[in-house]
Amino acid sequence: MPDVTITRPALNRGALAALSGLLSGYTALAVAELVASFVRPQAGPVTAVGGAAIDRTPAPVKDFAIRRFGTDDKLVLQIGIVAALGFLAVLLGLFALRHRRTGAAGVLAFGVLGAAAALTRPDAAGAADALPSLVGAAAGSVVLHVLLGRLARPPAGTGEGPAAGRLDRRGFLLAAGATALVATGAGALGRTLAGRRGRGAVASRAAVRLPAPASPAAPVPARAAPRIPGISAFTTSNTDFYRVDTALVVPRVDAGTWRLRLHGKGVGRPRTYSYRELLGRDLIERDVTLTCVSNEVGGPYVGNARWLGVRLADLLREAGVRPPSRGGPADQLVARSVDGMTLGSPVEDVMDGRDAMLAVGMNGEPLPFEHGFPVRMLVPGLYGYVSACKWIRDIELTTFDAYDPYWVQRSWARRAPVKTQARIDTPKPFARPPLGTTVMVGGVAWAQHRGIRRVEVRIDDGPWQDADLADQDTVDTWRQWSFPWTTTPGGHTLTVRATDGGGRLQTDRRTQTLPDGASGWHSVFVTPG
To answer: What string of DSSP letters covers 215-266?
Structure first.
């Protein structure tokens, strides 16, 4: 078998070809971001491809990402997309070293894929959404063609042909440096311009002065929020409130141009509302705990806030809508977001007297952009994926048989009332509390729209013992609890369970979040010492 010798010039060419591929991909993304700043940020290739990836990811995988990475799941996805594109760009550069035109065409092919992803997004705004990917790919293709041309060109004045084996390394590095500089400038300019596009929305939020509610929330009872170290605060701050959605770019909607359309089956008087019109109505203020269906037993995706908004049932009645129990033809309310998300809520639940609302305020201020400014929907007692539409723009009355919203299409249940849950906040898993002392075991329990009647704690396999309950604010909020425990030697498992306001004990049957929320008792293992 003959020896195969790889010469240093060949290795140099390979490394520089790989660098050419990376610079080609970098340029394509930077130019695409610049063009997207003129079209709309959501049309950028990373955002469009990321959104398509989210839509096509199996529900168990998506649920794992939320559990593993929390609210950083979108950042992890974007980093993964960029890393994958970088790897493919290196391979394309190496391939293009021998097939330069075909390699350049490959960059264009990726642009076509990005354009297709942008055009098929639920919130696609038209043909212009294809421009960022196509223009970026064209720029990347030119860069790859030019840089690889430098690798095939001998130094000036040598009189040597491209087969002489010598590299115009200086010319290549100058071209590569200039490419990196221009691409970085394009990307930075794109980010700046994209930020300016959202200034109108930011200004519109800053100008909002929330009116006083016609129906204010009752003061929170003093004993509803005892100050026990380690237990979640009764009211979750806006910055600490969980965020689980599919938006890679948080929509920044101008309240001045925002409109909400109400229409559909059984709507006798279709309406379109402006933000100012909603603020001019009688507003209600309520403390409501929201829970994400992706919250595992003992998980963090639950929070309590004081919401200000318009009672949704009033809007529906004014439009002529009747619930199914009163002969109404529609049993599902489909809410649509500006980013294309669709959620489906039972009309009966929305109109049964609970405080379902179109919220405009959260904890005394206009909704943060991350939580749905200018308007979001919420329905106490239902998981967020069937009730809590952020950045809402459209409400359609229909039936469950006629339409499956986004999450239902991905194997989640059509109807999803919140399950009774209790969580141990303190001590933390694997904590080592002092031996022979009394420590406070504590946490929160929730069963929205039913309330919490009882919480019990068990140490190892011992008997269930009643925990001390804080006062209940409303049936729609979580309830704090505590239990004094005198520590003893060895490892111990602390378990908690709750009983809702109707006397139904929380099930011990452990299930995953799919299809309608996790169930089971939460426990932690500690070792005093």
So the answer is: BPPPPPPGGGS---TTSPPSSPPTTTS----S-SS-----TTT-EEEEEETT
Alpha-carbon distance 53 to 76, whole Å? 13
468-469 and 479-486 strand pairing: antiparallel
Q: Give the pLDDT of residue 158.
A: 46
Question: Is residue 383 a contact partner of residue 370, using CB atoms and an 8 Å limit?
Answer: no
The answer to whether 414 touches 344, Cβ cutoff 8 Å, is yes
pLDDT in tens, 344-369: 999 999 999 999 999 999 999 999 99
- Contact between residue 398 and residue 334 where contact means Cβ atoms under 8 Å apart: yes
CA distance 400 to 414: 8
Burial 218-238 (b: 16+ CB within 10 A, else e): eebeeebbeebebbbebbbeb
User: Quick one: pLDDT at residue 5?
Assistant: 46
3-class DSSP state of 415: coil
Report pLDDT for 6.
Answer: 45
Residues of the chain with pLDDT under 70: 1-11, 152-167
- State the amino acid at position 80 in one-letter form: G
Could you tell me the two tokens for 139?
Answer: 């720029």
The whole-angstrom separation of Cα 433 and Cα 414 is 44
SS3 125: coil
* pTM to 2 decimal places: 0.87
Cis status, amide bond into 374, omega within 30 of 0: yes
The residue to which tokens 């593993």 are assigned: 68
Nearest in space to 478 (alpha carbons), one of 487, 486, 470: 470
Q: Cβ-count burial of 56 within 10 angstroms (0-12 exposed, 13-18 middle, 19+ buried)?
A: exposed
Query: What is d(CA 75, CA 60) in angstroms, rounded to the nearest whole number?
Result: 19
CA dist 103 to 74, 110, 150, 527, Å? 30, 11, 15, 60
Q: Residue 307 and residue 57: Cα distance in Å, rounded?
A: 33
pLDDT at 268: 97
Residues 6+ apart with CB under 8 A from 78: 46, 50, 248
The first and second tokens of residue 180, run together, are 């990196």
Cβ-contact 447, 498 below 8 angstroms: yes
